[in-house]
Here is the input.
Amino acid sequence: MSRWQCDETQPRCVNCATADAQCQYLASAKVASSSEHDPSSLARSPAFSNTDEANGTAAVSTPSTVGRMSPTWDIHDMELLHHWCTHTYKTMTDVPDQQLIWQITAVTISFTYPFLLNELLAIAALHMAICRPESENVWHTRATELQSLALKGFNSMEQQVDESNCVVVLLFSALVGTHLLGDRARIRALASSSDYLDHLVSCVNLMRSVRGLVLKNHSAFLLQSSVRALMITRNPKPPYDGVPSECRQLTALITESDLGPSSIEAYGTAIDRLLWLFDLAQVPSKPHDTPRSVFAWPVQLTDEYMALLNQRRPEALIILAYYGVILHFFRNAWCIGDAGASMIRAIDAQLGSYWSRWLQWPMSMIASS
Here is the structure.
């Protein structure tokens, strides 16, 4: 089991938040409980847990419910809103129509749903910490505070996800996933490669939860909604031209292992979707400055693969390492940075020499660039 120390970050220790543990500093300060502030527990919160697994519905509130939240914004938060509307929104995607959604549509919707506004401001604060490194600690602290407010508001929702609110849930989920990857203060607080791997698996779990919440039942509606540009992308078909031959050899990992039928199917689907993303993102021939399509793989993962990944099965981790190569070619995006390289190194440390031949190509990709 991983060990960590409380770093006494307010309003909640980032180490404990990432490890999904009860924060001792949080308890002594008598602030809200960990379930309200831990983004890695979002997928298990009342708002993110399926109340009807057959239809994928989940709890969420009406505008009138969230509108009664007491705002705590000050002049610095207005500065963050300005920073979002003039700078940060452009770092979310390089597609003009999608940029307009983040600059205008998301902000407009957030005035009805304050939890969305709080998370949007939290992302702006993380970006501000990079743009103004002399005030990095101040902006990181505010990002944590704002995210705590956002998660508390989201977790208090009461209504089912339907066509009236699936847009805000989609936007909020995308922002929280970005926050987890881009929170450098939280990542620096992790004590070991094992802790970092746990953090990244939590990120994948969270991003994947979007499928059950929104995409599974409301994709058709979203394609006709105000955020339809976020849903439109090129859809490569097999045999996925341009995918590196080393990636195609992943299928041998499955055929050479002693696996049951359900595991073979789960890994096969994960590999197919990974090749699809390699083709879509044109990795490794094209580097990227925004995280536009990088989350497209996690949201398509199956329950079976996620169970194997959560068990840290070697084959599941090796497939994740190849996703790390994609992340590495998105490293120019401020919210991703060295996440891909760190992921690959953490998996290499976890698996050891027996599996090293399967990690030679991912390790060579981060060494050569």
